[in-house]
Amino acid sequence: MTLVPGADGEPDALSVFALAVMPEITPGDDLAGMIVDAARGRLQDGDIIAVTSKVVSKAEGRVMQADDREDAITAETVRVVATRTPAVPGGLTTRIAHNRRGLVMAAAGADASNTAEGTVLLLPLDPDASARRIRAALRDALGVDVGVLITDTSGRAWRSGQTDIAIGSAGVRVLDDLRGQHDAHGRPMLVTAPAAGDQLAGAADLVKGKSSQRPVAVLRGMAHLVQASDGSARELVRPRSEDLFHTGAQESWDAGYAAGLAAARKLSTGAESEG
């Protein structure tokens, strides 16, 4: 594929394709080796490989019985952001949780889709490390300099539906910080920092799909985002100190109500003492 640079020196075209169908992954499988085999003869320097986190979790043994799902969510949770009870009897309570990888996700990232009946998948323990292993395997076996993303499906605040995001990274500039540069009208960009890792993850999901058993996609044309250092997808996680919405709406209302009630009681007690 030939890319024609735009006026800013960056490519004008992006191509995305999925690698071959893979067999069901089981704990202990050499996932990196399987990706090498599927990618042989199809990669070039500057490509970015997006791998669905579910196959990583399966290969790394992050599979548990569904009966233990609630306990697993609790164990994976650092902080509950919001809880919603079901609208109909017998439904599952939804917990939006800040998990041990710094991500805020439904059920702390535990997922029962695309796994054997009666089982639940937890996120990889260290998605960045998983990405590094796959990157190293591709470099050693195929001699290519590529970036690797581990992706997972997530909802977005204020938006319906889901998209894939980058939860692990090796060799990809996941945050394309443009602050200090100038826009087309010459004005300085003060806050512009595209979440390139998430944008690439979403694009990759368009060809991977959810049920096609094609968990690996190749993105070509974004070589300017491939870097020598491994980096980390944690760059995309907003620190809590900068998060204006670190609790759910109902939880914020409850906390405000409790604080107001406590203040009113304190004032009432003080007034009675003076009387």
The helix content, as a percent range, equals 25-40%
Q: What sort of overall outline do the alpha carbons produce when their principal axes are compared? A: globular
Which structural class do you get from the secondary structure elements? Answer: alpha+beta
Strand content: 15-25%
CATH-derived topology of the largest domain: 60s Ribosomal Protein L30, Chain: A
Alpha plus pi helix count: 6
Number of domains: 3
Overall mean pLDDT: 88
Give me the Rg, rounded. 22 Å
- What characterizes the major β-sheet? 5 strands, mixed
Order of helices and strands: EHEHEHEEEEHEEHEH
Report the count of strand segments: 10
Strand order of the largest sheet: 1-10-2-8-9
Distance between the ends: 85 Å
Low-pLDDT sequence parts: 1-7
**CATH class designation of the largest domain:** Alpha Beta
Q: Work out the oligomeric state of the chains in this entry.
A: single chain
CATH superfamily of the largest domain: CofE-like
CATH architecture type of the largest domain: 2-Layer Sandwich
